[in-house]
Amino acid sequence: MPDAATSALSRQVLRRAHIVRQRTRLKNKVHAILHRNLVPRCPAADLFGIKGRHWLAQQDLPPDKQDAARAVLESGLLGGEVAAGLNRAAEPGVERFDRVGRSRARLLMRSTPPARMLRLSR
Predict the structure, then answer these.
(1) Which helix (H) or strand (E) segment is 63 a member of?
(2) How far is Cα 70 from Cα 66, in angstroms, rounded to an integer?
(3) Are 48 and 78 in contact (CB under 8 A)?
(4) Other C-beta atoms within 10 Å of 71: how many?
(5) Contact between residue 55 and residue 44 where contact means Cβ atoms under 8 Å apart
(6) How confident is the model at residue 83, as a pLDDT?
(7) How far apart are CA 57 and CA 103, in angstroms?
(8) What sign results for the dihedral spanned by CA atoms 28, 29, 30, 33?
(9) Which of 14, 15, 61 lies closest to 34, judged by CA?
């Protein structure tokens, strides 16, 4: 059973991973809408940046698809401020989690025979 600090770090990392999965799913939805409607590739480097969003708003899509894309963009999960806040909030926890994980991995490596280490490292 992990101690309280490790459990808290683990929950923080899991929360961030969940949000990253949500953002990826939403971005994939927008890309799928564009692909299904044969919209050419966005000239901006980032479709979800300022220029990309402006370009997306100008595309001729069916009304239901336009509403779906707008809803995804207005969800707040794709905004730069949200992503930056998540990254800032998670960085110290991820670094501490990584440090704790590495020290525990060293202990595990010291206490296991070499054949077992090979199986664990795969």
Answers:
(1) helix 63-73
(2) 6
(3) yes
(4) 11
(5) yes
(6) 56
(7) 49
(8) positive
(9) 61
Question: What is the number of domains present in the chain?
Answer: 1
CA angle (37, 38, 39) in 5-degree steps? 95
Span 86-103, pLDDT tens digits:
556 556 655 655 666 665
More confident residue, 3 or 28: 28
What is the spatial distance between Cα 54 and Cα 4, in angstroms, rounded to a whole number?
46
Q: Which pair of tokens denotes residue 26?
A: 């939403």
Structure tokens at 86: 């998540």
Which range of residues forms the domain containing residue 27?
4-121
Say what the alpha-carbon torsion angle 93, 15, 87, 22 is, to the nearest 10 degrees: 160
Evaluate the CA torsion angle 76, 23, 35, 45 in order and state its sign. Answer: positive
> CA–CA separation, 87 vs 9, rounded Å?
14
pTM surpassing 0.90?
no
The encoded tokens of residue 82 equal 């949200």
